[in-house]
Amino acid sequence: MSMSSTMAPEQSFKPLSPPQARMWTALPPLQLRGTGTAQVESLDHYLIRLVDLVGITHDRMLEICNAAAGQILFPPHGTSSPFLCNETELEARIAAIERLTGQNDLLRHGTPWACSAVMGVHAFSSAARARRWCPVCYLQWDVDRSAEPLTWSIEIKKLCSLHGSELVDRCRSCGKAQPVRTHYRARRACRFCRTPLGWDAEPVSAHLTPLDRWVESQVDQVIELCSDPAQEKLPADRFHQFLEAFSVMHGDRADLPSALRSVVSLWSYAPATKISLKMLVNLAGMHGCSVLDILLDPVRTAQREPFFGFWQGFDYLPLTPRSRLRGSVRLQVALRNLLRRAAVCYLPSLALVADHAGCKQPEILHVQNQVLAAYRQARRVQHGKHKSKLFEQAIQPALDALGLIQIKRVMLYKIVPEIVTASRLDKTDARRIAETALILRRAKRAHDASLAVLPDTARDTVWLQ
After folding, report:
1. How do residues 233-284 score in pLDDT, each as one tens digit?
2. What mean pLDDT comes out for the span 320-327?
3. Residue 278 in contact with residue 220, Cβ under 8 Å?
4. 41-76 as b/e, with b when 16 or more CB fall inside 10 Å?
5. Helix %, strand %, coil % for the chain, to 5?
6. Alpha helix segments (H runs only) across 324-387
């Protein structure tokens, strides 16, 4: 048999393909969770999961990122998020982590990167952002699937979109705030008293007004836009395109609310001004459109006829601190302040706090259930140690003494001797009463201020703050 007859046809021979090149990364190629949805994982939480996976400290991880970037992008021991719309360093911070993990152009969607050219440094949250969470999410946590969404970091977002429960920022047992950079495995228990931070919280979404629901939906829509892998970075002039077109169409109309006219005037004297999400939501609400309408189609949106009918009975969006607070809101603020200082102050009866906040009995029902429950629980725990009647009697003399001095915490030591003299309390307990009196005095001042009616011009100016 000839050699040619034993060979297979020429076409049966295929060259061996070279082995596919493997991409090695300095850090594990961990994937961002929830991409393309309003529940996208925040890059802050991604970094905490990555730290846990690698088995190093958070500060060591930041050192690795800084070394990869060749500059100090992540300050050590920082407390606020480095990923909430600081455009000057946001791109470099994201790029450093993406290179280290091989997740190129993917991790940026766990941040407001897509809107970072349009919105300012603190557009989504204040600099002193406290860690917030949904207690039901923590209770139902699944290590393989769960993640802390970016929406928890958005200041005007009040509820969990999945469970309708209120986002909280304090342990309901000891009332203390939780560190932002708590280790992943210890994150769902209080750093101080070890009490679980997850519980079966009652949904409050059913009690929201249509306005509140609309605000919640606007935040979700913006975050969903930012989480879309196909979404490019929005041009910096989107907001100003809207203002310019609106000024051409409606700028001289006398029937426009003065607050709306004042926003439009920003474009004329501050063309580089960036907008916050809070202000953008206000603007969209007054114009009768959505935030995405302004961001994605600014000119056509500005040319619509403004829809003012929705705002009858509202002082625009109640998103900024106001001196004219309703009794239930004043009471809620006072209760939260007392809970924050629960370790060093006395928690008086709900009736006493409501009286100083100017909250009538029917208005107490409008205070968020989570706040009332947390306060009652903290008061029960505290009153196992203290004589409530004696403390309650000592508050009024403390308030009288506090009314004679400047209302600042650093001045409290001045009234401690007077409380000791007027009651049978020692200095430690007198100090607790002084702290309580300070919070109640501030609640009283908010109540007194609410009795004064602000003129329309002042009301409109407050909206811009």
Report:
1. 999 889 888 988 888 887 666 667 666 776 776 666 556 667 889 888 888 8
2. 48
3. no
4. bbbbbbbbbbbbeeeeebeebbebbbebbeeebbee
5. 50, 0, 45
6. 327-340, 350-357, 361-364, 369-382
Place of tokens 């607070």: 325
With 0-12 / 13-18 / 19 or more C-beta atoms within 10 angstroms meaning exposed / middle / buried, residue 305 is: exposed
pTM for the complete prediction? 0.65
Scan for tokens 């200095």, then name that residue. 427
**Which two structure tokens, joined as six digits, stand for 232?**
């490019």
- What is the DSSP-derived secondary structure letter of residue 70? T
Q: Could you tell me which of 90, 96, 171 has the C-alpha nearest to residue 377? A: 171
Neighbours of 113 (CB within 10 A): 22
Alpha helices for 358-426 (secondary structure H): 361-364, 369-382, 388-402, 416-422
Q: Which tokens hold the place of 316?
A: 């625009």
- 3-class secondary-structure state, position 20: coil
Rounded Cα distance, 465 and 461, in Å: 7
pLDDT, one tens digit per residue, over 71-89 is: 888 887 666 688 888 777 8
> Which of 58, 457, 69 has its CA nearest to residue 259?
457
